[in-house]
Specification:
By secondary structure, the chain is α/β, with parallel strands linked by helices. It folds into two domains: about 190 residues, TIM Barrel (Alpha-Beta Barrel), CATH 3.20.20; about 170 residues, Endonuclease - Pi-scei, Chain A, domain 1 (Beta Complex). Helix content is about 20%, strand content about 40%. The protein has an eight-stranded parallel barrel, surrounded by five helices. It is elongated and about 75 Å long. The protein starts with a strand and ends in a 7-residue tail after the last strand. About 40% of the residues are buried.
């Protein structure tokens, strides 16, 4: 599943009112703003990407002010290869700039223009009177093999949900003119929910558990509070991973650290957004990883720090329908996995025959990405 996103298009209001809307958006993780006149003021509010015709814009826009083809009535005989927007977009690209095209879908010819521009620009904003009709489906289907990110202009949370779910794939993002602080937060929540990945967890039977000596172990401290039942998918095999529980539970030996997952040795994999994996040794402050709960629901959390220390390790092996799963974990009472009863169980209490929650990926992986290839991991 792709991560979805939202952009704000600023309404024509006084700067002080506009500033409050942009700040609320930034607090809701909306950090792209389309604005044609206040770029310098916006830049002072935080790390915000500004979409504008200004030469200092982070993303240059074509077609929005009525001087291009995207907002005009096109003649049915018009040669779209001579489109003014296309020429301007190409000139921006030649200068190494990111470009977004703004196209109002007023006719079949505008659909064709969107397809032509979509093969050149980085982003394509599509503006329609009613997204319950066919044009959005057509454009998504025609451009799904192209690198461009499609953005639907919407007026409400309901339209936002419809746009990102169209044809199951949906647009990559939405853009809207905020009417209230509440609307910003509602749309931000829809985008967050749409970006959530669901992992089908299986129950694997433990076949062996034994100490194996010491190694460099990684603790992942996040900037989020993890809750009981939540952890991360960790494993020595990229296509077969255990759900390692967070340290959100109290212990008679140490206080809870609900921001932490004591993950495993440096060579192990952890699941990150986009159904990708990373080696634990690669994680750094600011990276994103997935927190996954006992039901397979996930959310993105940010790494606050990655702490590597030499610790005694334990080898855990399990089997699911003939698929062998192995992982190394720190040999300590506070390290827990999740069993078939949705309970957090310490590695010191796990026995052969116990059933644990695991994720099995049917594809192999290349540089962390799932692919259709046969790779043997032992």
């Amino acid at each position: 599943m792709k991560n979805k996103f939202a952009w704000i298009m600023t309404p024509d209001i006084e700067w002080e009112e506009k500033k409050e809307l942009i700040t609320t958006g930034l607090e809701s993780r909306i950090d792209h703003v389309l604005d044609l006149k206040d770029i310098n003021n916006i830049k002072k509010l935080g790390n915000i990407e500004v979409i504008s015709e200004d030469e200092n814009a982070d993303i240059s826009i074509v077609g929005i002010n009525g001087e291009g083809d995207g907002t005009l009535q096109l003649d049915n005989d018009a040669d779209l290869n001579d489109s003014n927007d296309l020429k301007v977009a190409k000139s921006y690209k030649d200068k190494g700039k990111k470009v977004v095209a703004y196209v109002e879908i007023n006719s079949k010819k505008h659909e064709e223009l969107a397809r032509v521009l979509g093969k050149v620009v980085d982003y394509l904003i599509l503006v329609g009177k009613d997204w319950t009709i066919i044009p959005l489906e057509n454009i998504i289907a025609d451009l799904q093999s192209v690198e461009v990110k499609l953005i639907a202009a919407v007026n409400s949370p309901e339209e936002a949900r419809l746009a990102i779910e169209t044809l199951e794939v949906g647009t990559d993002g939405i853009i809207f003119k905020p009417k209230s602080f509440k609307q910003i937060k509602e749309i931000a929540k829809i985008i967050e929910d749409a970006s959530t990945e669901k992992y089908e967890l299986k129950e694997a039977t433990v076949t062996d558990i034994k100490p194996v000596g010491s190694g460099d172990r990684v603790c992942i401290d996040t900037t989020s509070m993890l809750i009981p039942g939540e952890g991360m998918l960790i494993g020595s095999y990229s296509k077969a991973m255990f759900l390692v529980h967070s340290e959100s539970l109290e212990s008679e030996y140490v206080a809870s650290r609900p921001f932490r997952v004591n993950a495993g040795p440096v060579q192990a994999y952890v699941m990150v957004p986009g159904n990708k994996t990373k080696y634990l040794s690669e994680l750094e402050t600011g990276d994103e990883v997935l927190a996954v709960d006992k039901d397979g629901n996930s959310r993105t959390v940010i790494v606050g720090r990655s702490k590597i220390e030499k610790r005694p390790l334990i080898l855990l092996e399990a089997d699911f329908d003939g698929i062998k799963i192995k992982s190394l974990l720190q040999n300590a009472e506070t390290i827990r996995l999740v069993n078939d009863k949705n309970e957090a169980i310490s590695v010191s209490d796990i026995q052969v025959g116990d059933k644990l929650k695991v994720f099995i990926d049917q594809g192999a992986r290349h540089f962390g990405m799932s692919i259709e290839e046969n790779i043997i991991e032992k």
